[in-house]
Amino acid sequence: MGEESISFGVELRRLRLRAGWKLTDLAEATYYSKSHLSKVETGAKPPSVDLARRCDAVLHCEGALARLAGPPAAGASVRRNPDSGEVWLMSLDVDGADGFGVLSRRELLAGGAVGLATLAGLPVAPRADVGPTTIAAFREMFDQLRRLGQHLGASVLLPVLAAQTHALRRLAADAVGHRQRQAALRLAARFAEYAGWLAQESGDDARALWWTDRAVELAAAGGDDDLAAYAYVRQGLVALYRQDAAETVALARRAAAATSNPRILGLAAQREAQGHALTGDLTACRRALDRAAELLALPHPDDGPVLGTSHVANPAALAEGWCYHDLGEPALAAEILERELAGVPAHATRARARFGARLACAYADSGELEQACAVVEPVLAAYGRLGSATIRSDLRSLARTLNRWHRHPATAETRLRLTAALSATGAPRF
Questions:
Q1: N or C: which end of the chain has fewer CB within 10 A?
Q2: Which residues touch 51 (CB under 8 Å, ≥6 apart)?
Q3: How far is CA 216 from CA 84, 185, 209, 210, 311, in A?
Q4: What sign results for the dihedral spanned by CA atoms 99, 101, 103, 107?
Q5: Burial of residue 81 (number of CB atoms within 10 Å: 0-12, 13-18, 19+)
Q6: Which residues, other chains included, contact 374 with Cβ-Cβ below 8 Å and sequence gap of 6+?
Q7: In the chain, what is the straight-line distance between the N-terminal and C-terminal CA atoms, in Å?
Q8: Residues near 116 by beta carbon (within 8 Å), at least 6 away in sequence
Q9: Rounded Cα distance, 325 and 261, in Å
Q10: Cβ atoms of 370 and 332 closer than 8 Å
């Protein structure tokens, strides 16, 4: 037991006594057992980040205990490969085996999979007339793929997105006019950005950032500098799931400084709020949430595909529920998330599962175990199809909470199903 744990316990006891609370009162408010809290106060057990946030919330400490417990261990920075090149390989063998991957040129040559001369020797297409009809057809394909992304995993969709990105790049290179070229490149950027999101959903943060970088390059070539700002919002989501609060806030602020687009500014404010929630800073979180709600209510300023979720009418409100859960107020989080989840369309399976998992966590953390178990049932069914890393993160959190209630009969079957789902080895293959 370290000095940090003892310091936390002493301060927790001081704040509890100052509020006039007995250990029983704190146990009822946080849904941790009296014996567990006693061991934390004496230093026999280290505090979890979740417990620190709960105590901050109920004792109105504005994140002081969460800071004393220490920030969650930030994951290692996601490394970009400086020699990534632009070699995308797809294969389909006669026996039905298939694969898709992004390799650096160095890896490609070292593996001898195919010579670069072969790739360079592909026939050159004649210069094309990339008119509005062609762009509209690709835009419809993009919208269809986003709809399919609500029901299918990344391993199915990433090869298709790569192919469409490549096709639009080729069309842009061969386009007759400047405006045609720009239109093709801007749409190619949206395909690449969506590929980055699906790569993150599959649990591959490095590839997610690779695709996002490609999207920024394509957008800039097409005269769309706003996507570079949105890339910081996307990178902030990677940091958020690594529990890196400082990096989440910093990236959100970089996004806001790089654009005047209200949609991106709103999404950046939303991400900043989520970062502040991780540190227990209610005041800063609330300010950012209010800013996000105001900005995201404004009309979408361009005619391209909507950046961020296209299936959630009020993303700021769902983010608010997410934030209150991380701020240690699960009952309020559950109230907000339940209300907002009701407005997410039934066909938006991925969105409903992501926020449903968070709602199940909020119910469990507020002691509503039957509700948590009921809410997570459709989430588990969707998770089996989607293989989502973001959903998996919340399911693991839910499993830890339910394991604290292992004697409660309502949790037995759900805990077994959670264990089976989380131990399945069905990771997508690229």
A1: N
A2: 30, 32, 40, 69
A3: 15, 10, 10, 10, 23
A4: negative
A5: middle
A6: none
A7: 43
A8: 87, 105, 108, 109
A9: 29
A10: no
Per-residue pLDDT at 300 exceeds 90? no
Q: How is residue 2 written in tokens?
A: 């370290």
DSSP single-letter state for residue 87: E
Q: DSSP states of 88-124 as a string?
A: EEEEE-TTS-EEEEEE-HHHHHHHTSS-HHHHHTSPP
Beta strands at 87-92 and 98-103: parallel, antiparallel or unpaired? antiparallel
Q: Please tell me the distance from the alpha carbon of residue 295 to that of residue 306, in angstroms, as a whole number.
A: 14
CA distance 213 to 192: 9
The 10 Å Cβ neighbour count of residue 129 is 12
What is the per-residue pLDDT for 106?
53
The C-alpha atoms of residue 321 and residue 335 are separated, in whole angstroms, by: 8
- For 335-362, the pLDDT digits (tens) are 999 999 998 998 999 999 999 999 999 9
Burial class of residue 115, CB neighbours in 10 A (0-12, 13-18, 19+): exposed
At residue 72, does pLDDT exceed 60? Answer: no
Query: In the prediction, which pLDDT does 117 show?
Result: 38
